[in-house]
TrEMBL record, chains A, B:
It holds the Pfam family MerR_1. PROSITE patterns: HTH_MERR_2. The keyword Ion transport does not apply. This is MerR family transcriptional regulator.
Amino acid sequence: MRISELSDRSGVALATIKYYLREGLLHQGEQVAATRAVYDDSHLRRLRLIRALLEIGRLPVAAIKQVIDAVEDESLPVHQMLGTAQYALGPAVEPEPSDDWQAARAEADRLIDERGWTIAPDAPTRNELAQTLLTLRRLGMPTDLSRYAETAGGLAAAELESLRLDGPRESAVEAVVLGTVLYGRAFDALRRLAHESESARRLAGEDQPPAAG
Amino acid sequence: MRISELSDRSGVALATIKYYLREGLLHQGEQVAATRAVYDDSHLRRLRLIRALLEIGRLPVAAIKQVIDAVEDESLPVHQMLGTAQYALGPAVEPEPSDDWQAARAEADRLIDERGWTIAPDAPTRNELAQTLLTLRRLGMPTDLSRYAETAGGLAAAELESLRLDGPRESAVEAVVLGTVLYGRAFDALRRLAHESESARRLAGEDQPPAAG
DNA sequence: GGTGCTGGATAGCGCTATTATCCACGGATG
DNA sequence: CATCCGTGGATAATAGCGCTATCCAGCACC
């Protein structure tokens, strides 16, 4: 198909597709003549990936580019590609040079080690977790995340259960990355709903005088 | 304290504080003279709330304003204030006018009803959940979220367990909103870590020939 | 043989969060 | 009493991001 058809079928504006091509998010079409190129299903698929990461995952375009680059670097072993892609899903957090921060980072590491998880020592997610722990502590909120870690472990295992990582690279990344982002958002929404319900239960009848009886 | 001290102690640039004052995120200081006002711990506290929502929660300033407005509207019953604040935490999602969307929304409602959760019929989070379900379906991914819902319910209950909602308004909102945002981010990071570990386990040794033995 | 779509390049836009600049004033300080 | 720094208040400028619009030359296709 030509670019205009790709635009129609994907629902993405033509100018935007050109932009994605420029930015390297979308691979070039097959150049069939000097002023003509054809696109195929892989482009449609890629556009779906991009839009999902953008709209549901709210990832900045630069982060999506990192994911794409990992996919397209054929020399990268699969697990490393997945790691790189995954790292792009979280915000970049740089360590503060303070003792507080060191302690938080240590706690994050401990949380990981206690579960026997296999995580790269330089995984940026460690810092992300540390930063969150630090903020919690500074605000005087409870920082025991063991239960969260257990729960997260359970969910992650179940998610990967149904996933085949041994297919083509692009499929594997799509599955992992989209799964992370989409189920992440779903869970977050559910958690907020549960919160609403729970606090409704606790505050029931608080604003009216209690019913007689 | 004066505004410059507030800036120093909070780490927020003076011009930014002025901006927050203009936007109504930060309440005015006590006007002690025509060109002099004093700020106190409540301002420091508020700044911490704002920064946490902004940096950890990645909420747009407009959404933070909604939270603040809910806090400051004394006529709002507590549970309604919490609801309003909570709704600002999720992205606004407007329904597509399609059958697919209707179905997704129905599924979201069912997921909620099945658990006997008490959720306002017009809670925007319902749409957020529906949208996510729709995207999952369109991408051909599994859409059974019962387990997620169960898990989320458990976590939410535990979180509210340790929270007192009967204190001053600002504390209640802070607790709920910061809890939602911070523990949400923590859980998300943990989930990604668990993912990394799990896929490392599954792909172990895939790129090297398996060790002898 | 026109003409409509294409690739390619560059410029502009709309929004958000912030930062900078300017101004007049008045309280603290000497 | 002079002065001068920090202040409140207003407005303008900035930076980054995700597009979107414009222009152009060329060729495939009718």
